[in-house]
Amino acid sequence: MFELVFLGTSASAPSIHRGLSAQVVLYNEHRFLIDCGEGTQRQLLKSGLGFKRLDKILLTHGHLDHILGLGGLASTFGRWEAIDHVEIYAGAWALERVKDLLLRVVLRGANPSLRIDFIELRPGVIMEDAKFQLRAFPVSHRGPDCFGFAFEEKARRPFLVEKAEALGVPVGPERKKLVGGEAITLADGRVVTPDDVLGDPVPGARLIFVGDAGRIEDLVDEARGADALVIEATYLEAEADMARQFGHLTAAQAARLAAEARVRELYLTHISRRYREAEVLAEARTVFPNVHVARDFDRVKVVKRK
Fold first, then answer.
1. Which part of the chain is CATH 3.60.15.10?
2. How far apart are CA 51 and CA 214, in angstroms?
């Protein structure tokens, strides 16, 4: 299960009720901040998440409404918080802007206690462990090196207690070894393999996150079958020409992507101040029923598809 916390859901400029783009994804001991618009550190505090273990920052692209909060956040980390190392992942163009912001403006040659690693994104696996994998994939938007992120739990084989008991496998470390893929030898000399007590693989949860995007055709395969898709809906269809001009999506386009990719739930964010939430929701629901317009501080649990 992944947990997603929306910190900022406005497009381009903040509104009274919506901050600029920022989200946190939580998985086991991991915390990932996706984008860091102006005001993000205050949103982190208001959400109750705080700064603890927030050492991985993923940037969808380098536009200012997605990165300006990094200046204040890095300053806070370096002065007051018990975080001595942070990793910032972004495309090459975005990284150059972030380096200018942090190294030339915020730090200006100072030697802070905070170590910052700038890691250039390329399509493919960013990190993984025994239970999950995080991938980056290209997204079409204004400017180069824009990315989306796929958070994917690895398939697991459930432990079949009844079979283990029928074979006489005792409770304890023997069962743990079998779950870990290791065969065991029982006291009477019989060998029990994982296949004897593990069921068929069960797919894990999939969360697909897309920031700003100008087209959906190249996202269908990435989003296919996702338990949750998060994506922008900056415009309505009445202003589709403007959406194309600025490389953004309409609510109806985002919903068409969700429908074609057969995702389970759609969460719309990056909402323009020119529209009411009800308008955005109504347009999307004419195409795809399981849609939500995200609000600041909404929390979503993404579980595997049944």
1. 2-156+201-302
2. 32
Handedness of CA 168, 173, 176, 177 (dihedral sign): negative
Yes or no: say if 251 and 277 are a contact pair by the CB < 8 Å rule: no
For position 80, what pLDDT does the model report? 73
Under CATH, which number does the domain 2-156+201-302 receive? Answer: 3.60.15.10
Q: Is the pTM of this model over 0.85?
A: yes
Going by their DSSP bridges, the two strands 228-232 and 299-302 should be labelled as unpaired
d(CA 44, CA 22): 9
Catalytic: which of 65, 145, 212, 227? 65
Position 200 scores a pLDDT of 85
- Which long-range CB contacts under 8 A does 279-287 form with residues at least 24 apart? 279/236, 280/233, 280/236, 280/251, 281/251, 283/236, 283/237, 283/250, 283/251, 283/252, 283/255, 284/233, 284/251, 284/252, 284/254, 284/255, 285/255, 286/252, 286/255, 287/252, 287/255, 287/256, 287/258, 287/259
Contacts 24+ apart (CB under 8 A), 121-125: 121/89, 121/90, 121/91, 121/145, 121/147, 123/147
Q: Is 65 a catalytic residue?
A: yes
Q: Which residues in the chain show pLDDT less than 50?
A: none
From residue 113, alpha-carbon distances to 10, 78, 236, 259 in Å are 33, 6, 46, 48
Q: Quick one: residue 304, left, alpha or beta (phi over 0 = left, psi -120 to 50 = alpha)? A: beta
